[in-house]
Specification:
single chain, alpha/beta, Rossmann fold, six-stranded parallel beta sheet, three-stranded antiparallel beta sheet, 13 helices, 9 strands, about 40% helix, globular, Alpha/beta hydrolase, AB_hydrolase_fold
Amino acid sequence: MKMLNVKNLLKATAFAFGLMAAQSPAFAADTAAANAANTKPTILLVHGAFAASDSWDGVAPILQDEGYRVISVANPLRSVSGDAAYTRSLIDSIPGEVVLVGHSYGGPVISNAATGAANVKSLVYVASFAPEKGETIAELAAKFPGGTLGEALAAPVPLGNGVNDLYIDPAKFHAQFAADVPADKARLMAIAQRPVTDFALNEPSGDTAWKDLPSYHIYGTADKNIPPAAMEFMAERANSQETVVIDGASHVVMVSHPKAVADLILKAANTN
């Protein structure tokens, strides 16, 4: 009898595990019926360099409370083309419309990922780059004065293939990246920061979806990673539907002003 019970238990466990595996990753947990019934677009949040998925923790609940399905993407930060291909695979797996939101380096990623994707409704650039085809992030960052990221970087970490990982020096992280965030929060963000490769920052962008899709832009006047003048230039070039500029906001405007960012995303989600 004991053996029978153990066998039954193993079968039940294997069956349950199979169901869980079939529903993974987490963003696919909704049933097909629920997806079909939900006419609201899914909102894909793509973080940038020196950040992580939890940088959207203040924004995501606001969107969820409005009935939107939200996916916070773990951006690899290896190359614009590779990260865009990864994000595109997620886009293609989602039934219905998608709103793409990119922070900083995430801007080029969503610009490339959305190109030719029939279900992408709109783009939201949060303290972000919006490159033209052939432009690099490094080029755009140097186009206008005011950026001090280079001075705040720690020593590069060689990866052994001619490419280096880049981090912000933790001692400089608060002032450089998140000056309007409480010090204790910024300290944790510095510890959890995800590195970006120098290759990614110097890889030319492919085709950019903002030429064909409505875009929305939000950034702060105290951003030290991307000069505000550069973001103003990119928003105007993309014929931004709405540009929100927050006085005194740092590069992580989604952390310090989550409601303002969420409100703009909601407008993008309601674009006809």
